[in-house]
Amino acid sequence: MTSNQKELVKATIPVLREHGVVLTKHFYQRMFQHNPELQHVFNKGNQQNDKQQTALAMAVLAYAEHIDDPSVLFPVVNSIGHKHVSLDIRPEHYAIVGKHLIASIQEVLGELATTDLLEAWAVAYQELADLMSGHEQNIYKEKVSEKGGWTGWRPFVVKEKVVESSEITSFYLYPADQGPVADFKPGQYISLRMFLPELNLLQPRQYSISCAPNGVYYRISVKRERGSEHPDGLISNRLHQVIQPGDLVDLSSPSGVFVLQEDSPKTKVFISGGVGQTPLLSMLESVVKQESIPQVQWIHGCRGTEVHAFKDRVATLTQEYNNVKQHIFYEGVSDQSTGIYGGWVDLAQIEKEILAQEAEYYICGPRGFIEKHYRYLIEQNVDPATIFFEEFGPASLAL
User: Fold this and answer.
1) Taking the model in full, what pTM does it have?
2) Along the chain (399 residues), what's the average pLDDT of each consecutive run of 10 residues?
3) Which of 3, 67, 290, 313 is deepest in the core (most CB within 10 A)?
């Protein structure tokens, strides 16, 4: 890009800050109108709740703000790259997106979209597309180079379906070709694709792998959204109500950057709310086997015992391994006992145990849950570099 083109892109920053979501909403409507086949690729639930539009608006803004040195955005590029690879996004998709993004800028800005501005954004987008697709090609290569690895979609058989609580059920997924499955980093997710008759669409969803790597199968643990007609609820309800052992589903290989720092001997503190415990359970099952880890603190919050999935599994681990201790918060419990607390997760109640040693913190749950506990840890002078978190769905947190 020329310096003049960079200045033109930077000049649009105020507009993107104020009206970025308006632009991205127009973009998605335009793209799906002209390329309806892409509705099979994008999560329709995230389209309805504006998460996808907001995430794209934030990404476009961040790129404009750092157009002089896009390298500082690598952590974001890496995270988005993993998500794209899990959805089998290929270079040809970037050409389609670019065409509709530039057209949307012209249609939304009207007379403000000069020829020079559109050309500057076209060049800027192409450089970003080259950066993203180049990084994703490296991820694809890594996947096919490992034992049991693959790219794209691969059929898996649901061999077991285990009820974990009144809301959460686990699905044990084995490859239909009976070959090995790629190992993964504890905390990663897989994409699962199903056909939804209600929408007449193939729809993908990401689910955290809730077991330790084993080379044979993956386990996902899915919360049922009772009475939900939202597209996300349609997927979870179909898994719960329709899918049975012996049925086939399509999976992409494990992806994601919210992972256990396996080479670090620090104390691990896992903090989860509701179904947010699923990636942390994979981490817990993996880390208890490491003798170098001095202590593991498991902190989980949910409404009550009836919705508390994996209660017995975690209890067993705390009995088998002396370095594991759990703290459970139930919203509907007033009588407290050892390790059981009433109300919402409150780290201040257990700060002596979780802040007494050098540690790493892993947080997963709803957006507000993550924000609350991240800010508490920062206020206690915890190094931000030791705090890891994942928000389910398109990333909207910038902590």
Assistant:
1) 0.92
2) 95 94 96 96 82 89 94 91 96 96 96 95 96 96 95 97 96 96 96 93 95 96 76 83 96 97 92 96 93 91 94 95 94 75 94 88 94 96 94 57
3) 67
174 noted as active-site residue: no
The verdict on whether 136 is a catalytic residue reads yes
Q: Which of 63, 94, 125, 189 is catalytic?
A: 94
- Contact residues for 174 (Cβ-Cβ < 8 A; gap 6+): 156, 157, 159, 181, 216, 217
Tell me how far apart the alpha carbons of residues 304 and 330 are, in angstroms, rounded to a whole number: 5
